[in-house]
Write a structure and sequence with these properties.
Length: 184
């Protein structure tokens, strides 16, 4: 009897205290964000934007009101000197293009084989679970996916990863996107 109770308590502790399933994005979603990007010498730039994700067609688009707040758009020649919108387009082949709508200019940025394709819906697989936190009024899960830097990711809480909503992506130390869950 004691062995059975001990086994049940141990099993219950594992189930109750186990990390949640890693984040996984739905096949298609849209969400608005605000972003702060910090350049080592030039300082901080702030912008607003919208993230459009469509894994079903292997494409995504990111629109920013001020391209200077993005490592690709901002460091693209003289474009750094003026505030202007910039959009990332990743096509079905994984090629990334930068589009400057006010200037009606578009250029090839990089290809999927160099890390520029669409983020996989399970890109957080293998991330470290950093616990539950309160974030902008929401109870949330916090994750860290190590790459070239810490990639902190915060999402709402749900047993099913597909029902969670992205709240924050912070590519430390210089790129922090705060997402608006009401636009999900």
């Amino acid at each position: 009897m004691i062995k059975t109770v001990s086994f049940l308590l141990a099993f219950l502790a594992i189930v109750v205290f186990a990390d949640p399933e890693a984040p996984r994005w739905p096949t298609k979603f849209t969400e608005e964000f605000t972003e702060t990007f910090t350049y080592p010498v030039f300082g901080k730039f702030h912008t607003k934007g919208t993230f459009y994700y469509d894994a079903g067609s292997n494409r995504y688009r990111v629109e920013r009101e001020d391209g200077r707040a993005d490592r690709y758009c901002g460091l693209n020649g003289l474009k750094f000197l003026s505030k202007q919108p910039c959009d990332h387009y990743v096509d079905e082949h994984g090629d990334r293009y930068l589009h400057y709508p006010k200037k009606n200019e578009c250029c090839f940025c990089c290809a999927a084989e160099h890390g520029c394709g669409i983020l996989r819906s399970d890109w957080q697989s293998g991330a470290t679970f950093d616990g539950e936190v309160e974030y902008n009024g929401f109870q949330a899960y916090k994750w860290d996916k190590k790459g070239l830097q810490s990639n902190l990711y915060i999402e709402t809480i749900s047993d099913n990863p597909l029902n969670r909503v992205m709240l924050n992506m912070d590519q430390q130390p210089n790129d922090n996107q705060i997402f608006d869950p009401l636009t999900w």
